[in-house]
Amino acid sequence: MEYGFIRVASATPNIKVADCFYNSKSIIENIKKAEQNKTSLIVFPELCITGYTCSDLFLQDSLLKDSKKALKEILEQTKHLNITCIVGMPIEFLGKLYNCGVCFYKGKILGIVPKTYIPNYNEFYEKRHFNSFKNNHIEKFLDRDICDYYINFGNIVFNVSNIKNFTFAIEICEDLWSVIPPSSIYSLNGATIMVNLSASNEIAGKPIYRKELIKNQSARCICAYIYSSAGEGESTTDLVFSGHNLIFENGRLLKESNLFTNSIIYADIDLEYINSERRRNTTFETIKTESIYTIDYNMEDIHFDIDRHIDPLPFVPKDENKRDIRCKEIIDIQAYGLKKRIEHIGIKNVVVGISGGLDSTHALIVINHTFELLGYDKKGIIAVTMPCFGTTDRTYNNARKLCEIIGTTLLEINIKDAVLKHFEDINHDPNIHDVTYENSQARERTQILMDVSNKYNGIVIGTGDLSELALGFATYNGDHMSMYGVNASIPKTLIRYLIEYFAKNSNKDLENILMDILNTPVSPELLPPNQNGNIAQITEDIVGPYELHDFFLYNMIRYNYEPEKIYYLAKKAFNNSYDNKTLLKWLEKFYIRFFTQQFKRSCLPDGAKVGSVSLSPRGDFRMPSDASLNGFLERIKNLK
Length: 640
Hints:
The protein is α/β, with parallel strands linked by helices. It has helices at residues 20-36, 61-77, 174-177, 182-188, 206-220, 271-280, 320-345, 358-374, 393-406, 416-426, 435-455, 466-471, 492-504, 508-518, 539-543, 546-558, 563-574, 580-596, 598-601, 630-637; strands spanning 5-11, 41-43, 84-93, 96-105, 108-114, 139-141, 151-153, 156-160, 167-172, 193-198, 224-229, 246-249, 252-256, 264-270, 293-297, 349-353, 381-385, 409-412, 458-462, 484-485.
């Protein structure tokens, strides 16, 4: 297992109705193919050994005996293969026939799980042949035509003892469509993977409903869900089956087969992620139910290179239409949060520092939307530009034009003289461009904004974003401080798309200004420009690429992954854009800055949460300001 990942498969074999030996050969072929692909768990459709559409042939002894012989052949042919398999077949137990999932590994049957809910409506007539198993205890099953040992028969959770979090359970077709699916109970009893052996016939519109049903159950149970459905080969007397196979992980589709293609689909499931989500969710309670029996067994571990898309920009939806919808949602959340604060205080004015950079531009966009919601005069937006040593003509002019187009009140307060006087007061040489030189400017700007807000009976709107807060790239009691921080949970990699979305939906003049701001290098502009008058201080040269830091942040906070796994995923996500040495350099820098700068986050202003990652000390993230990072750094130093 690689960092919590296991490979699973959903297979629809080619079958012939009531030809158990033809079907078993097809099943064996699929198992061998999956095992060669380093698969740990493969799931087949409901009643796949006989075919689902045998109808009254299920009552024939010949078919039942052939199905047992076919199972024995499958067990024999797979006894040397390192893969857990689940097939569907009819099982006679105490004189009754049950529709079952048979789980086996290396030729040994681990357990048999009967279907709980037997449909007998519309096109389904299963009660004509099969019984429902609703016993509150496990039965012992013995059929010497299959094997010479007793098998557990009933509601079972299968646990691979030597592979952490690899725990699965079986439900069959209609079980999922019931009011309380067995998978809900299994998940509460520790199963992280649900498998469904199905024979879901195809009618117009059903694939969408089926897909949503599995998606929602996977999300509700915080589990992986492997769905394997009957396909071509089943009888078409009355129904058609499409072999619609699906693999979900906590509500996210990992893989889907094309309809009407008998095939195998594979997906690499992240068991550590599922476990982390359950641990985080305090309403998910693991309970041990007496009617659920756990079977433990060991598997040979499988090492493989995961074949799974790792998103290098986890905060940003890839699909443009979905991204636009997300951008609108986020700007609305920010604006309505600010609207509530303004209405509560009972003010008509707000103050914001405008630099011509990304963060202050987006903050102004949010404020503008808020004033439109309130119906307030935009002259109540007091935008303050405060040029100093590092201000360039490009950012200065963009800031002014932006305010003019939106229609804010614009104040220009040059802080050079004030900062130089401050240097004189504290006996600092202005030719020494150190942290004192830089932070004095940031604190002077914050002092001005606070005092202007008092003068105009307003509040200061903070512009700092989530990425800067994670890295502590903010001057304590400088740009770190405000009276409401609208960008507090917006990462740097997302803020560009938010501005771009607003630009696309603006007039041409505003769009042109916003696009130029997007193309301006990210900089605090605290050091003097170069000899050509351009920005000399590039933020990412100092702290590292924001796309890496946002990736590290998301995987550390959202999924609680360890440094080793984050590094492993980063290599996949960025696909040689950075060499290993560079990734490790910035991963180490991220952890150092994240831990040492927690004191800044401990006293952050209010600000609305807009996504699944937030560093608010009152809401999502609490950490001691003096927590040791030695253990994390030691892990990173051991990586290559």
